Amino acid sequence: RVNLSFLRYVLEFQGFASVINGAAQPQITRQPLLTYTIPLPPLEEQRRIAGILDQADALRRLRTRALDKLNTLGQAIFHEMFGDFLNSKLMTPLAKLTTKIGSGATPRGGDAAYKDAGVPLIRSMNVRDGSFDRKGLAFLDDDQADGLKNVIVRGKDVLLNITGASVARVALAPVELSGARVNQHVAIIRPAPEMLPEFLEAFLLLPSVKRNLLGIAEAGATRQAITKAQIEEFKVPLIPLKDQANFVARRNEAAHIAVLCGQQQQQQVALFASLQHRAFRGEL
């Protein structure tokens, strides 16, 4: 006899790698499955172990739900502070609140023209929603970079993907990448002093704003794309600078708490795995 909750935890812990065969099309056939073994203590012990793991799993799930809520807290703060602006006519074209909007190009020769080191070239793969990913960062020599001197990145420029499957993704340029260039798939949006980069990034990350940007991109004649003119015409809320700064401070505090919560969640995952290991070795 077997307790179903205990069986679920055992199967999750052990997995089925030992009975999977077939390189081209992995599958589990009847014969290997008949040889699959699991630890099977007395039924009462199974119930005891399952009860302990149920409690630990419930705590783990609570932590995950709390982290999910924290990750959307920035958006909630934005709507709490500025929701009335979003539903009013107090919006202005980005062109009036920026000092630069522009995208670059890919050097002749494509990927083969990139160097092992040099001036960084930011591509769409580097721009994640709300974060910058250095993986896949390309590099140019001085001559190639000179050909893109009209799109020199400054730290905290707002980067917006303007073509392809990742269109409308947005992130801030890291300060340490000042002097980098962007290719034709990424636009630099440099806010004027009246708008904080972090505020603009948060606005462009709002789900409703993201939908608007995607709608603009999908209206392209031949491909998903957002043009410079469309970025310039895109309307953003005109918010007093001190209120923007207050929002950024609150959002940063929420993000810090989310990081701590994420670290605790990782610790809980590791502890749960350790608990399973001990349970199925008879050490619990």
From TrEMBL:
The keyword DNA-binding applies. PANTHER family: TYPE I RESTRICTION ENZYME MJAVIII SPECIFICITY SUBUNIT, TYPE-1 RESTRICTION ENZYME ECOKI SPECIFICITY PROTEIN. GO terms for biological process: DNA restriction-modification system. GO terms for molecular function: DNA binding. The lineage of its organism: Bacteria, Pseudomonadati, Pseudomonadota, Alphaproteobacteria, Rhodobacterales. Belongs to the type-I restriction system S methylase family. CDD domains: RMtype1_S_EcoJA65PI-TRD1-CR1_like. Keywords: DNA-binding, Restriction system. Transmembrane segments: none annotated. Pfam families: Methylase_S. This is Type I restriction enzyme, S subunit/type I restriction enzyme M protein. SUPFAM superfamilies: DNA methylase specificity domain. InterPro entries: Restrct_endonuc_typeI_TRD (IPR000055), Restrct_endonuc_typeI_TRD_sf (IPR044946), Type-I_RS_S_subunit (IPR052021). Residues 9-70, 145-245 form the Type I restriction modification DNA specificity domain. The keyword Ubl conjugation does not apply. It comes from Pseudorhodobacter antarcticus.
